[in-house]
UniProtKB/TrEMBL annotation:
It catalyses: L-methionyl-[protein] + [thioredoxin]-disulfide + H2O = L-methionyl-(S)-S-oxide-[protein] + [thioredoxin]-dithiol; [thioredoxin]-disulfide + L-methionine + H2O = L-methionine (S)-S-oxide + [thioredoxin]-dithiol. Pfam families: PMSR (PF01625). Belongs to the MsrA Met sulfoxide reductase family. It is an enzyme of class 1 (oxidoreductase). InterPro entries: Met_Sox_Rdtase_MsrA_dom, Met_Sox_Rdtase_MsrA_sf. NCBIfam families: msrA. This is Peptide methionine sulfoxide reductase MsrA. Gene3D superfamilies: Peptide methionine sulphoxide reductase MsrA.
Length: 157
């Protein structure tokens, strides 16, 4: 198994996108990229921790490539809006890729550049590509939120 960590707004919706991908073996929602150890949802939501809401994706690289996961990431949100997705506003909802190794860094940079130059998007991509930081698992009630609550959307574009 390999790991990927993505932030693309409300982690409930992002997790739902990745759960449907063949080769994704497990997902967890949580927080990463900030300064506070063991943050709570309320602390991250307040915007004072520098953490982003993220999804950790464990995947079988024999069944799905990291490049394919990048396609899902860029398709599941608007990577041209800084610190906002839908109704969620703040750096905790930023578009960010936390790469685990040099191979992921190179793939993320290439995918971002290719999409930026494709003309498919009206504005430039603002997605951050940054080294993986500590991942803090979100509270249990956030895990598989849509499945547990029968919700279909959280407002991400």
């Amino acid at each position: 198994m390999e790991k990927a960590v993505f932030g693309a707004g409300c982690f409930w919706g992002v997790e739902a996108f990745f759960e449907k991908v063949r080769g994704v073996e497990a997902t967890r929602v949580g927080y990463s990229g900030g300064t506070l150890a063991n943050p709570t949802y309320e602390q991250v939501k307040a915007g004072d921790t520098s953490h982003a809401e993220v999804v950790e994706v464990l995947f079988d690289p024999w069944k799905v490539s990291y490049d394919e996961l990048l396609d899902v990431f860029f398709d599941c949100h608007d990577p041209t809006t800084k610190n906002r997705q839908g109704i969620d506003i703040g750096s905790q909802y930023r578009s960010v890729i936390f790469f685990q190794n040099v191979k992921q860094l190179e793939a993320a940079k290439a995918k971002k550049e290719k999409l930026d130059q494709s003309g498919k998007l009206k504005n430039s991509i603002v997605t951050e590509i940054t080294p993986a930081k500590e991942f803090y698992e979100a509270e249990e009630y956030h895990q598989k939120y849509f499945q547990k609550n029968g919700t279909l959307s959280c407002g991400i574009s």
